[in-house]
Amino acid sequence: MKAVIFAGGVGTRLWPLSRKKSPKQFEQIVGNSSTLQLSVERLTSSFTPEQIYISTGMPYVDMVSDQLPDIPKDNIIGEPEMRDVGPAVGLISAILRKDAPGEPFAILWSDHLVKNVKLFNRILGVGGKLVEKDKDSIVFIGQTPRFASENLGWIERDKKQNEIEGIDVYGFKSWKYRPDKVTADKFFKSGKHLWNLGYFVTTPEFLLKQYKKYVPEMYEKLQKIVELRGKAGYEKRLKEIYPTLEKISFDNAILEKIETGNRYVIAEDIGWSDVGAWEALKEALEDEPGQNITKGKVIINNCSDSLIYSYTGQTVAAIDLDHMMIVNTEDVLLICPKKSTPKVKELVNSLVGTDNDHLT
Questions:
Q1: 289-305 mean pLDDT
Q2: Tell me: the pLDDT tens digits for 258-270?
Q3: Whole-number Å distance between alpha carbons of 171 and 41
Q4: Omega into 69 within 30° of 0, i.e. cis?
Q5: CA–CA dist 120, 136 (Å, integer)
Q6: Domain named MannoseP isomerase/GMP-like beta-helix: which ranges (predicted)?
Q7: What is the pLDDT of residues 28-47, one digit of tens each?
Q8: Nearest in space to 279 (alpha carbons), one of 334, 333, 325
Q9: 112: nearest Cα among 183, 180, 204, 30
Q10: What domains can be seen in the chain, in order of their start residue?
Q11: Which of 35, 44, 128, 355 lies 20 to 30 Å (CA to CA) from residue 68?
Q12: Alpha carbons 284 and 104: distance in angstroms, whole number
């Protein structure tokens, strides 16, 4: 079985720590390791370095290699241009069909935290065994919800289909992307809805069959790219063809069109958190709601429910602050109420093409 970790996004929601020159997955957001390093570390009990692939942008290939020296260089797949997740998953599927035909693989992400690592690895193993038995299938891994989130996608599971090594496997019923508050509350109380993590297990052959059916032009171009993998001219062809692929999400290109009978769901509490935004990071790290979260040289006095990070030698001192986000870097200091963190991405986008473009 193979594991693929996607590490290509710029991460504007975690600005000013995350920048184009060094996106969030390469930064020490939690502890002294990057989230990319943590993503690989939690796989080491079940996967060898040769079984792990990293998908990233070409500008970041060397950064991946520096942070993950044990991963073979051929397993670090660089996209010459960001074309969204649809083409990225297609490319890695085509590569894996050539490198490891018929072998299950898991799609994972580099900006998440998982607290129950043993259970997470068990689930990946069960997903692999299920896919080996049913080659025309895809297994989605969901997180038992901790609250009614409006910022995540949700999966509705169907009836129980199987049990493998103590892990329940359900049929897939439906999904909803970022529901409104009323709907999220309903999902949370239903007992049948899960957070959609974007994690799944399948085979390259099954996915490529879907690409051939639903995005045939992309499929043909991907085959043309990969036929030269390991040969002279591969990099040149990749750089010529990949930027011509349709820019489309994986959900729109493939997932929403796969026949229901081939979709399964595993639902467990693996202690998963998306740390792609400051508010989400705070929620992931706090032991109880309202706790202050700090990193670096920080002094707080009578503050509550605030995140204060200092990535410089400066000490940040805060008095009488509630529900605030403060992130101090060498050239940018971000200060905003916790409720305003969704606006960080808007702010960064507004800087593009201006005199402050170098800060993005």
A1: 97
A2: 886 789 999 999 9
A3: 30
A4: no
A5: 23
A6: 302-351
A7: 998 889 999 999 999 999 99
A8: 325
A9: 30
A10: 2-276 (3.90.550.10), 279-359 (no CATH)
A11: 128
A12: 30
